[in-house]
Amino acid sequence: MQAYFTQFVKTGNPNQEDQLDWPLVAADHPAKIVFNQAITVEKLT
Fold it and tell me: Which domain of life, per UniProt (predicted)?
C-alpha cells in the first residue's frame, strides 16, 4: 500500500512496472484492490 501511495504522490498515478496495476474506477467497471497475503483485483459488488 505504501508503494502505491508514494507513487501516486510523486506522479499522480499509483501504478508501477513491478506491481499489479491499480485499476481505474468507472460506473461500468467498478473494481477494488485487496491487500492480503497476495494482492488481487476484484470486481465490486
Answer: Bacteria
